[in-house]
Amino acid sequence: MWWPWWLALLAGGAGYAGLVEPFWPRPVTYEVAIPGLAAELDGYTILHLSDLHGRVDFFARPWFQDWLRQSQLICVTGDLYAPTLPRRRVARILQRLAQTRPLYYCSGNHDWRRGKLAVQPWDPGGAWIDNRVALLAEGRLALAGLPDLRRGQPDWERVLSALPSAVPALLLSHRPDVVLDPRARRFALVLSGHTHGGQVVVPGWGAPIRHTRIPGRYVAGRWEWASGRYLITSRGLGESELPFRFFCRPEVVRVVLRAR
Prior knowledge:
Layout: H1 5-19, E1 26-34, E2 45-49, H2 62-70, E3 73-76, H3 87-100, E4 103-105, E5 112-113, E6 116-117, E7 132-136, E8 141-146, H4 156-162, E9 169-173, E10 189-192, E11 221-226, E12 229-233, E13 251-259
Protein backbone atom coordinates (compact mmCIF):
# COMPACT_ATOMS: atom_id res chain seq x y z
CA MET A 1 0.00 0.00 0.00
CA TRP A 2 1.42 3.35 -1.08
CA TRP A 3 1.32 6.23 1.40
CA PRO A 4 0.21 9.63 0.14
CA TRP A 5 3.27 11.82 -0.44
CA TRP A 6 2.25 14.25 2.29
CA LEU A 7 1.89 11.47 4.86
CA ALA A 8 5.33 10.08 3.96
CA LEU A 9 6.77 13.59 4.25
CA LEU A 10 5.15 14.06 7.64
CA ALA A 11 6.46 10.74 8.92
CA GLY A 12 9.95 11.52 7.64
CA GLY A 13 9.91 14.95 9.31
CA ALA A 14 8.75 13.45 12.60
CA GLY A 15 11.50 10.85 12.45
CA TYR A 16 14.12 13.49 11.73
CA ALA A 17 12.84 15.75 14.53
CA GLY A 18 12.82 12.95 17.09
CA LEU A 19 15.71 10.70 16.11
CA VAL A 20 18.26 12.86 14.27
CA GLU A 21 18.33 16.53 15.18
CA PRO A 22 18.27 16.17 19.01
CA PHE A 23 21.48 14.13 18.73
CA TRP A 24 23.23 16.44 16.25
CA PRO A 25 24.75 19.28 18.28
CA ARG A 26 26.44 22.21 16.61
CA PRO A 27 29.44 24.14 17.94
CA VAL A 28 28.85 27.90 17.86
CA THR A 29 31.42 30.64 18.53
CA TYR A 30 30.70 34.29 19.32
CA GLU A 31 33.24 37.06 19.80
CA VAL A 32 32.16 39.90 22.07
CA ALA A 33 33.96 43.18 22.72
CA ILE A 34 33.90 43.98 26.45
CA PRO A 35 34.39 47.66 27.42
CA GLY A 36 37.15 48.03 29.97
CA LEU A 37 38.52 44.54 29.50
CA ALA A 38 42.25 44.40 30.16
CA ALA A 39 44.36 43.86 27.05
CA GLU A 40 45.88 40.78 28.68
CA LEU A 41 42.44 39.15 28.72
CA ASP A 42 41.82 39.58 25.01
CA GLY A 43 40.89 36.10 23.81
CA TYR A 44 39.59 34.94 27.20
CA THR A 45 37.32 32.02 26.29
CA ILE A 46 34.16 30.80 28.00
CA LEU A 47 32.47 27.47 27.34
CA HIS A 48 28.74 28.09 27.75
CA LEU A 49 26.48 25.11 28.45
CA SER A 50 22.74 25.38 29.04
CA ASP A 51 19.58 23.30 29.40
CA LEU A 52 21.35 19.96 29.56
CA HIS A 53 18.17 18.07 30.52
CA GLY A 54 20.34 15.01 30.96
CA ARG A 55 22.14 15.25 27.61
CA VAL A 56 25.84 14.81 28.38
CA ASP A 57 26.89 12.32 25.69
CA PHE A 58 28.11 15.22 23.56
CA PHE A 59 30.90 15.99 26.03
CA ALA A 60 32.95 13.01 24.85
CA ARG A 61 33.17 14.28 21.27
CA PRO A 62 36.64 15.36 20.08
CA TRP A 63 35.60 18.91 19.17
CA PHE A 64 34.13 19.42 22.65
CA GLN A 65 37.29 18.16 24.30
CA ASP A 66 39.35 20.53 22.11
CA TRP A 67 37.13 23.46 23.13
CA LEU A 68 37.41 22.45 26.76
CA ARG A 69 41.21 22.58 26.57
CA GLN A 70 41.10 25.99 24.90
CA SER A 71 38.71 27.54 27.44
CA GLN A 72 39.49 29.36 30.64
CA LEU A 73 36.01 29.11 32.15
CA ILE A 74 32.86 26.96 32.03
CA CYS A 75 29.44 28.55 32.60
CA VAL A 76 26.27 26.47 33.01
CA THR A 77 22.99 28.38 32.84
CA GLY A 78 20.56 25.95 34.40
CA ASP A 79 18.23 22.98 33.84
CA LEU A 80 20.49 20.03 34.49
CA TYR A 81 18.26 16.98 34.54
CA ALA A 82 15.45 15.18 32.73
CA PRO A 83 12.97 12.75 34.33
CA THR A 84 13.81 9.99 31.85
CA LEU A 85 17.63 10.19 31.99
CA PRO A 86 19.90 9.15 34.89
CA ARG A 87 20.78 12.03 37.21
CA ARG A 88 23.87 10.34 38.65
CA ARG A 89 25.61 10.23 35.30
CA VAL A 90 24.98 13.93 34.72
CA ALA A 91 26.23 14.75 38.21
CA ARG A 92 29.38 12.68 37.71
CA ILE A 93 30.23 14.36 34.41
CA LEU A 94 29.57 17.85 35.78
CA GLN A 95 31.92 17.06 38.65
CA ARG A 96 34.61 16.00 36.16
CA LEU A 97 34.18 19.22 34.20
CA ALA A 98 34.53 21.24 37.40
CA GLN A 99 37.87 19.55 38.01
CA THR A 100 39.27 20.61 34.63
CA ARG A 101 38.33 24.32 34.58
CA PRO A 102 36.67 26.83 36.91
CA LEU A 103 32.94 26.11 36.55
CA TYR A 104 30.06 28.34 37.61
CA TYR A 105 26.40 27.44 37.56
CA CYS A 106 23.18 29.44 37.91
CA SER A 107 19.89 27.65 38.47
CA GLY A 108 17.09 27.15 35.95
CA ASN A 109 13.40 26.61 36.50
CA HIS A 110 13.72 22.81 36.33
CA ASP A 111 16.37 22.88 39.07
CA TRP A 112 13.85 23.97 41.73
CA ARG A 113 11.37 21.81 43.62
CA ARG A 114 8.90 23.25 46.14
CA GLY A 115 10.88 26.42 46.54
CA LYS A 116 14.25 24.71 47.09
CA LEU A 117 17.18 24.04 44.81
CA ALA A 118 17.14 20.32 44.00
CA VAL A 119 20.19 19.32 41.95
CA GLN A 120 21.26 16.27 43.95
CA PRO A 121 23.24 14.09 43.57
CA TRP A 122 25.48 16.87 42.22
CA ASP A 123 26.80 19.21 44.87
CA PRO A 124 27.65 22.45 43.04
CA GLY A 125 29.40 23.86 46.13
CA GLY A 126 31.46 26.88 45.14
CA ALA A 127 30.28 26.53 41.55
CA TRP A 128 26.80 27.69 42.53
CA ILE A 129 26.70 31.41 41.77
CA ASP A 130 23.04 32.30 42.39
CA ASN A 131 22.99 35.79 43.96
CA ARG A 132 26.78 35.74 44.19
CA VAL A 133 29.78 37.32 42.52
CA ALA A 134 33.10 35.69 41.61
CA LEU A 135 36.24 37.60 40.66
CA LEU A 136 38.19 36.02 37.82
CA ALA A 137 41.60 36.56 36.22
CA GLU A 138 43.17 38.00 39.36
CA GLY A 139 40.27 40.36 39.91
CA ARG A 140 40.22 41.88 36.42
CA LEU A 141 36.85 40.35 35.47
CA ALA A 142 33.69 39.83 37.53
CA LEU A 143 31.10 37.11 37.07
CA ALA A 144 27.68 37.29 38.74
CA GLY A 145 24.73 34.94 38.76
CA LEU A 146 21.02 35.11 39.43
CA PRO A 147 18.67 32.19 40.17
CA ASP A 148 15.74 31.47 37.90
CA LEU A 149 13.65 34.63 37.76
CA ARG A 150 10.41 32.82 38.64
CA ARG A 151 11.31 29.77 40.70
CA GLY A 152 14.26 31.30 42.56
CA GLN A 153 14.62 34.54 44.50
CA PRO A 154 16.90 36.94 42.60
CA ASP A 155 18.65 39.39 44.93
CA TRP A 156 19.75 42.26 42.70
CA GLU A 157 20.91 44.44 45.58
CA ARG A 158 23.21 41.79 46.94
CA VAL A 159 24.73 41.11 43.53
CA LEU A 160 25.20 44.73 42.48
CA SER A 161 26.66 45.76 45.82
CA ALA A 162 29.26 42.97 45.57
CA LEU A 163 30.53 44.11 42.15
CA PRO A 164 33.73 46.19 42.09
CA SER A 165 32.86 49.45 40.38
CA ALA A 166 35.76 49.57 37.93
CA VAL A 167 35.73 45.93 36.81
CA PRO A 168 33.87 44.71 33.69
CA ALA A 169 31.15 42.29 34.68
CA LEU A 170 29.33 39.33 33.13
CA LEU A 171 26.01 37.87 34.27
CA LEU A 172 24.63 34.33 34.21
CA SER A 173 20.83 34.09 34.16
CA HIS A 174 18.76 31.15 33.02
CA ARG A 175 16.11 33.34 31.40
CA PRO A 176 17.08 35.93 28.78
CA ASP A 177 14.27 38.18 30.04
CA VAL A 178 16.69 39.37 32.70
CA VAL A 179 17.84 42.05 30.24
CA LEU A 180 14.37 43.64 30.43
CA ASP A 181 15.29 44.77 33.96
CA PRO A 182 17.15 48.12 33.91
CA ARG A 183 19.56 46.83 36.55
CA ALA A 184 21.04 44.44 33.97
CA ARG A 185 22.73 47.41 32.31
CA ARG A 186 25.59 47.03 34.78
CA PHE A 187 26.72 43.98 32.78
CA ALA A 188 28.58 44.01 29.48
CA LEU A 189 27.52 40.45 28.64
CA VAL A 190 24.64 38.25 29.75
CA LEU A 191 24.65 34.48 29.15
CA SER A 192 21.31 32.69 29.27
CA GLY A 193 19.31 29.72 28.03
CA HIS A 194 15.75 28.53 28.78
CA THR A 195 14.25 29.12 25.32
CA HIS A 196 15.82 26.04 23.67
CA GLY A 197 15.81 28.23 20.58
CA GLY A 198 12.12 27.38 20.35
CA GLN A 199 12.96 23.69 19.69
CA VAL A 200 10.79 23.91 16.58
CA VAL A 201 11.55 26.61 14.00
CA VAL A 202 9.55 27.36 10.87
CA PRO A 203 12.07 28.15 8.10
CA GLY A 204 11.83 31.75 7.00
CA TRP A 205 9.55 32.71 9.89
CA GLY A 206 10.92 31.65 13.24
CA ALA A 207 9.89 29.80 16.39
CA PRO A 208 6.15 29.63 17.15
CA ILE A 209 6.93 29.18 20.87
CA ARG A 210 9.70 31.47 22.13
CA HIS A 211 9.58 31.27 25.96
CA THR A 212 10.66 34.90 26.25
CA ARG A 213 9.03 38.33 26.41
CA ILE A 214 11.86 40.00 24.50
CA PRO A 215 10.28 41.94 21.61
CA GLY A 216 10.58 40.81 18.01
CA ARG A 217 11.49 37.31 16.92
CA TYR A 218 14.55 36.91 19.15
CA VAL A 219 14.78 33.46 20.64
CA ALA A 220 18.50 32.59 20.69
CA GLY A 221 21.92 33.81 19.58
CA ARG A 222 23.82 37.06 20.09
CA TRP A 223 21.89 40.30 20.45
CA GLU A 224 23.13 43.80 21.29
CA TRP A 225 20.31 44.67 23.65
CA ALA A 226 21.80 48.02 24.68
CA SER A 227 24.74 50.06 23.43
CA GLY A 228 27.87 48.00 23.98
CA ARG A 229 25.97 45.32 25.94
CA TYR A 230 25.28 41.85 24.60
CA LEU A 231 22.96 38.97 25.35
CA ILE A 232 23.87 35.46 24.22
CA THR A 233 21.12 32.87 24.59
CA SER A 234 22.00 29.25 23.94
CA ARG A 235 19.60 26.81 22.31
CA GLY A 236 20.77 24.35 24.94
CA LEU A 237 21.62 20.69 24.66
CA GLY A 238 18.45 18.90 25.72
CA GLU A 239 14.70 19.07 25.37
CA SER A 240 11.85 19.43 27.83
CA GLU A 241 8.24 18.32 27.54
CA LEU A 242 8.47 17.25 23.87
CA PRO A 243 11.60 15.23 22.95
CA PHE A 244 12.22 16.62 19.48
CA ARG A 245 13.83 19.47 17.58
CA PHE A 246 13.19 20.81 14.09
CA PHE A 247 15.51 23.28 12.34
CA CYS A 248 16.87 24.06 15.80
CA ARG A 249 19.87 21.87 16.53
CA PRO A 250 21.18 21.70 20.10
CA GLU A 251 24.37 23.65 20.62
CA VAL A 252 27.47 24.20 22.68
CA VAL A 253 28.45 27.87 22.73
CA ARG A 254 31.98 29.23 22.95
CA VAL A 255 32.32 32.93 23.82
CA VAL A 256 35.59 34.71 23.12
CA LEU A 257 36.01 38.03 24.93
CA ARG A 258 37.75 40.85 23.10
CA ALA A 259 39.32 43.97 24.54
CA ARG A 260 38.30 47.15 22.74
